[in-house]
Amino acid sequence: MAELLRTHPLEAWTAAFERLPDTVRIAAEPYVAMVDVRLGTVGPGASTALGVDLPTAPNTWVPAGAGRAVWLGPDEWLLTSPTEAPEELEGRVRAAVVGLGGSATDVSAQRIGLRLAGARVRDVLARGCSIDLHPRVFGRGSSAQTTLGQAGVVLLALSDAGDDVAVLVRSSFAGYLADWLLDAALEFTTTPDR
């Protein structure tokens, strides 16, 4: 049987992303395994079983090994892993939470990650996002489910300075969002004539 090659939905945007200046860098992140976890009670048992203290403060994320644990709601988290296959992550997490009355669902194909870095990242995001992205409010460890342009996204602050942000977007909206980001970054890519 022939093996199908998996291509990234943002492969066609790579060259355009690479032409951006250092003040606004955009890159498509590689695929990562993602599991949606539902768990009514978070306690020491869940933390021990999962190997990570799930964030309980709204709109936060924490490192989880090489991946992340993102708070999505009072009883919902997104766990990511760049080192495990989706079925491995789902199996491991399911085994850890099913005895606690929880569930785990592989959602790896649902979202694509983009990484935005540079001094003008907040300016670009502010073009289509209504939340306060100032570092005193949206610093490292903060997350937000919001819209960017007209696409639903999850934003993750990766630095305290506000110059490094991960954006998780549904795969079907990835091309739209890539075009939107390139357009929003346009004014920061040229130097006005003086």
TrEMBL record:
UniProt cross-references to Pfam families, sorted A to Z: SoxG
Cross-referenced Gene3D superfamilies = Heterotetrameric sarcosine oxidase, Probable tRNA modification gtpase trme, domain 1
SUPFAM superfamilies of this UniProt entry?
Folate-binding domain (SSF103025)
**Where in the sequence is the signal peptide annotated?**
none
Q: What is this protein called?
A: Sarcosine oxidase subunit gamma
Q: Which organism is it from?
A: Geodermatophilus telluris
